[in-house]
Amino acid sequence: ILKNKASIRINLESSYSKNPIYMGSELLWTGHLHKTAGVSLNYNPSSRIKILNNNKISYILSIDNDFNTLVSRVELSERIRIIWFILPRLRWENTYNLLLYKSIQGLGMDNSNHVLNTRLSVALLKDASLEIAISGNDLLNSSPSYLTQTNALYMTQEWKNTYGRYGLLTVTYNFRKKK
């Protein structure tokens, strides 16, 4: 990899959470084991372009009081972000996210989605502490949300599209002084 132009970061994560569920007056528990491995590559082919690539694979296992498997799935994500510094204070960002969900039990919760966002921003004031940006989000109109509800008697899983395409105009002021 070219000196001072690229960096790689590798991370491993593991977590476990235990959540209470009341069935009538009986207290039951569900546990969630989440393991993740990820690789990030940041590449700067020139002083005006940055390319960021993040890859992640996750395994999620949900169990009940008796250690029976309720949900077991694998999630893969790929994120590519390209930032182009058009002028010293004007930049254009494009972000593409690919998410794949695969159920181990074959419960019909397999899904994939593609999300494309774009953002044009300009830094203002002498110290560039004020930024005005316009963005277009979910340009492919495919961003879903995923909901799993589990209790002692049944489990429901549902995919829904969230906002759809939308645009934002943002104004940000940074109180920290840039060096």
| H and E string | EEEEEEEEEE
Q: Total number of helical segments?
A: 0
Distance between the termini: 29 Å
Total strands:
10
Averaging pLDDT over every residue, what do you get? 83
User: Which word captures the global form?
Assistant: elongated
Low-confidence stretches: none
**Biggest pleated-sheet summary:** 8 strands, antiparallel
Report on the structure:
The protein is mainly beta. It has no helices and ten strands. Helix content is 0%, strand content 73%. Strands 1-2-3-4-5-6-7-10 form an eight-stranded antiparallel beta sheet, with no helix packed on it. Strand 6 (111-124) and strand 7 form a beta hairpin.
Key features?
single chain, 179 residues, mainly beta, eight-stranded antiparallel beta sheet, two-stranded antiparallel sheet, 10 strands, 0% helix
Tell me briefly what this model is.
The chain has 179 residues and is mainly β. The protein has strands at residues 6-23, 26-46, 49-63, 69-87, 90-103, 111-124, 130-137, 144-150, 155-161, 166-173.
Task: Describe the SSE topology.
Layout: E1 6-23, E2 26-46, E3 49-63, E4 69-87, E5 90-103, E6 111-124, E7 130-137, E8 144-150, E9 155-161, E10 166-173
Antiparallel strand pairs: 1-2, 2-3, 3-4, 4-5, 5-6, 6-7, 7-10, 8-9
